[in-house]
Amino acid sequence: MNIFKRLFRIGQAEIHAAVDKMEDPIKMTEQGLRELATDLAEATEAYAKVKALAIRTENDQLQRQQDSRSYAEKAILIMQKAQAGHVDLVKAEDLAREALSLHKRYYVESEELGEQVNALQQSSREMLRNTEILKENMEKWEKELRTLKARVKVSKATEQVNKQLAHADNHGVIGMLERMKAKVEDQEALAKAYGEISRERNSRKEELDSLLKDDSVSIEKDLQAIKQKLGIS
């Protein structure tokens, strides 16, 4: 199983070597997480198998213990029957020897199986601990990957905007704006000049009309009006 090798790889996803090689740390991390997910599934399956083997071995151990006790009891029972005269003593001793032999055999097997059970249980505990560590790390790295992706999107958008701002005048935008500004100022000045010319012409006309105006006609009219009121013919 290469879990720890994969752990090392995922831990190195953002090292400077990757940057120097122009590799994408996000893609590397995603690939590493996919590989780790496969390893986690395999580790979980392996743990289940070891756990099941430990249970079966422990059941075998208990059965051997029971068989060992059973044959020890049978040896005693046979000798008790021989003592009571129910079984020939020589035959009873042979049967008792065979029972004691089986008792010893099953006892030894039980002890060996007990050692196997302890080893399997220890292995299963270590595998469980490793799978839990791997699962916790994967959850942490997946969270960090989501954060990294979000930061990359923001940085790319910011870079694009800043790049456009930095190169805005490449398309002559600033120059066009300056020319438009100058043109508007020229038009405003021209309009102001026309307005001043118009006001000057009106002023001169009024001045001319004032000079050419004959006040004698108005005075005569006023005088005739007074005479009419007084009845002077």
Automatic annotation (TrEMBL):
<dbReference type="Pfam" id="PF04012">
    <property type="entry name" value="PspA_IM30"/>
</dbReference>
<protein>
    <submittedName>
        <fullName>PspA/IM30 family protein</fullName>
    </submittedName>
</protein>
<feature type="coiled-coil region">
    <location>
        <begin position="26"/>
        <end position="53"/>
    </location>
</feature>
<dbReference type="InterPro" id="IPR007157">
    <property type="entry name" value="PspA_VIPP1"/>
</dbReference>
<keyword id="KW-0175">Coiled coil</keyword>
<feature type="coiled-coil region">
    <location>
        <begin position="124"/>
        <end position="158"/>
    </location>
</feature>
<comment type="similarity">
    <text>Belongs to the PspA/Vipp/IM30 family.</text>
</comment>
